[in-house]
Every structure is written in structure tokens, then in C-alpha cells.
Automatic annotation (TrEMBL):
Residues 13-89 form the HTH rpiR-type domain. It comes from the Bacteria. This is Putative HTH-type transcriptional regulator YbbH. It holds the Pfam family HTH_6. One of its GO terms (molecular function) is DNA binding. Transmembrane segments: none annotated. It comes from Agrobacterium rosae. InterPro entries: Homeodomain-like_sf, HTH_RpiR, RpiR-like, WH-like_DNA-bd_sf.
Length: 140
């Protein structure tokens, strides 16, 4: 899913619009990462820094440099902000249905929380925990 990076003058620049604005000035490795993120923002939320590096054709250090260059302390901080941005975009699409504003606000909050929770899940740890619980005879 590609999310529009069009900016309205009254809004602060979004992560995706920052990447779009800076992509031509970035070194090749960082530009490849930015291009991949712009084309796959939802997929990036489910990827580790190593997976993103593999898919974008760049190293983990380059990903961290890009995150810092656009104002984040690291990849986790970047993903949290991206999750909120993707959630807001998804809400904007759904909210155009004209539903009750209170329901729209609740839906926005829930979608943002789910996106943030989803970006924080470490699948290896989760799968390991599930396997341990499944194989145990007693849960302390």
C-alpha cells in the first residue's frame, strides 16, 4: 500500500513526506531504504531492522543513519511513529464514510494502539514463548 505523501500547508510534515522530500539528496544506500519504506510502509511495521535491510538492499547501520537523519533516535522510535502515521491514514480512509464522530475517534485510538502494539511484537520471542507453554505440563 502506498500512502500519499501530499502535504497540506497547515500540517507538520509526516515521516513519509520527509522521506519523499529528502530522497533525492540521500546517499544511494539511504535512498534505497527510503524508497522501500515509501513503497511498503505497512510491511516495514512488521519487519526487524535486519529484515528491512535485506529487503531494501542496505545494511542495518544505514537504516539507523536514515532514522537519525529524519529526526528519530533509532529504528524502534521510527517504527512507532510510522505505525501511528499509517494508523491515521487508514482511519482517514475509513472515516470518510460519515460515521458518528465519537465512533471515528474511538476507531482512531484503537487503530493507533493496535498499530503500535503490532510494531512492538517480537515474533521470535512470541513463538518461543508459545512453544514453551505448549510443551509444558504445568504453568507456574
Amino acid at each position: 500500500m502506498n500512502i500519499s505523501t501530499d502535504k497540506r500547508p497547515s500540517e507538520q510534515p509526516t515521516i513519509l513526506s520527509k522521506l519523499q522530500d529528502e530522497i533525492d539528496q540521500l546517499p544511494n544506500a539511504l535512498a534505497r531504504i527510503a524508497k522501500y519504506i515509501l513503497e511498503n510502509p505497512e510491511k516495514v511495521l512488521r519487519q526487524s531492522v535486519a529484515e528491512l535491510g535485506e529487503f531494501a538492499g542496505s545494511g542495518e547501520a544505514s537504516i539507523l543513519r536514515l532514522c537519525r537523519q529524519i529526526g528519530f533516535t533509532g529504528f524502534r522510535d521510527f517504527k512507532l511513529a510510522l505505525a501511528a502515521e499509517v494508523g491515521r491514514h487508514q482511519l482517514a480512509v475509513v472515516s470518510s464514510s460519515g460515521a458518528d464522530p465519537a465512533i471515528d475517534q474511538l476507531q482512531q485510538t484503537l487503530m493507533q494502539n493496535l498499530a503500535i502494539a503490532h510494531s512492538n511484537v517480537d515474533l521470535l520471542t512470541l513463538n518461543g514463548s508459545v512453544a514453551k507453554i505448549s510443551n509444558s505440563t504445568e504453568i507456574p
